[in-house]
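Re: the request from the purification team.
They wanted to know what the chain is likely to look like in 3D before they choose a buffer screen. I agreed to run a prediction and write the result into the notebook, where they can find it.
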Amino acid sequence: MRLNKIFYSNTLLKIISLIAAIFLWTYIIVINDTPAERTFRDVPITTMNENIFSDNGYCIERLSVSGASVKIEGSRRVISSFDVGNISAALDFSEISASRLTESGTITVNLKVDTDYGDVISFTPSTVDVYFETTKYKDVDVNYTSVGEVLSGYEHGDFTLSQDNIRIFGAQSNIDRVAYAGVNIDLINTNYQAYSSGRLSQECGVKLYDSSGQELAERENRWIWNSNPEITAECPLYKTKSVPIIPNTDGTMAGVSLNINPSTVDVYGDNTQIGSLTGIATKSITLADFDKETEINVGLDLPSWVKTVDNVTEVRVSANTN
């Protein structure tokens, strides 16, 4: 009797499990994968074959709209997991004839929308007004900033750029927004080869800034062409060395003991000479320098190729005649 109950109980569980599995399969395959519609707003509008403008001395100033609203129908499961990046909304200028580019400065172009993840049901706008102007140019200075520090035991020298200015092209109203260009030198990720060679060389992307020092947003510099999107930044890399400070005294200081604070200084310079540097002398010190003082500031007599870390230029010297 008990065996029958056990058998009956197991059979019932198996039937329930099978029904649950069938229901789950039906939900995943049938219900969750049924066609569904979804509207995507602010799909970025891109452009193709812009050379029709540049070849005829024009450039795009702006579009009447920058984004489209697109309704897609597709698998509910698939369509729920993708975004505007899976939709193409483009203006193709390949069929625009040069005769349409007149001084009126506006043409209307059909918008083309496509996706590999469903069917496009509708989209707005269907056409976009393209505003264009005669291409102008402007020369702007290039400034630099740096981020991070070089490795401990090293200092970097002065930065130099492969060019101090660049030429930008575009509609007058767009290039007027640009006050200067800038590059950012990344000292954090300096490779070890630069340290062994003693020179950093880095390709830096050029960014455009307005008069308030703010980087132009993508929508502001989208139609500005830069003749040099990258600039090479270079600087020497020097090994640092801690050396003692040697007082430079004359005969009047005989019998006078001196205390120098700090007694050592960290220096850097020509890597071929830094190894043989044994100390840094002070400027000349005489007894008359102390007069009624027992402690004075004395400058360092640095060789022309030597610089000090933290720009130390003088030390504090105290005299004790005992």
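For the purification team: The radius of gyration is 36 Å.
Please add any questions underneath this entry.
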